[in-house]
């Protein structure tokens, strides 16, 4: 039962990491654009560092870079809820088949055809 809870929460965690990554990327892009525009007004680079302060600028760049790297790693390695269900479902099905003797027999073509017809009927009734 614990796995089901985390399957529902993984989508929220993954989306939060995506939003964080996109936000930090937008902030960095705006910062770079502002920095380039400032170069036109302050052609001497030392004036820019005197204006902002080198330590303060380095501290903010370190923090933003660390947040960006962490959110990028989360974005890459945390699967979406749909992907997680694709991983989880076959494993539980195989465990059920191994533990249940009645299921070990393969269904005949007629039963599979009836099940497919029922699924098609359910889908068409939901579309209406």
Q: Return the string of H and E elements.
A: HHHHH
- What's the total count of β strands? 0
Q: Give the helix tally.
A: 5
Secondary structure category: mainly alpha
Oligomer: single chain
- Using the CA coordinates, give the radius of gyration: 27 Å
Q: Sketch the major β-sheet.
A: none
Note the overall shape: rod-shaped
End-to-end C-alpha gap: 34 Å
Strand content: under 5%
Write the layout of secondary structure elements.
Elements (H helix, E strand, L loop, with lengths): L1 H40 L3 H8 L1 H24 L3 H19 L9 H19 L1
Helix pairs in contact: 1-3, 1-4
Q: How would you sum up this structure, described in words?
A:
86% of the residues lie in helices and 0% in strands. It has 128 residues and is mostly helical.
Question: Summarize this, please?
Answer:
This protein has 128 residues and is an all-alpha fold. It has helices at residues 2-41, 45-52, 54-77, 81-99, 109-127.
């Amino acid at each position: 039962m614990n796995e089901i809870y985390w399957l529902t929460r993984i989508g929220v965690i993954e989306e939060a990491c995506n939003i964080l990554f996109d936000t930090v990327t937008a902030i960095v892009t705006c910062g770079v654009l502002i920095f380039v525009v400032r170069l036109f007004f302050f052609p001497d680079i030392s004036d820019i560092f005197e204006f902002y302060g080198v330590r303060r600028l380095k501290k903010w760049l370190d923090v933003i870079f660390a947040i960006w790297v962490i959110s990028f790693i989360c974005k890459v390695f945390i699967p979406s809820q749909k992907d997680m269900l694709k991983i989880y479902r076959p494993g539980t099905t195989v465990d059920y088949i191994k533990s249940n003797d009645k299921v070990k027999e393969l269904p005949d073509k007629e039963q599979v055809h009836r099940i497919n017809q029922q699924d098609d009927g359910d889908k068409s009734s939901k579309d209406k």
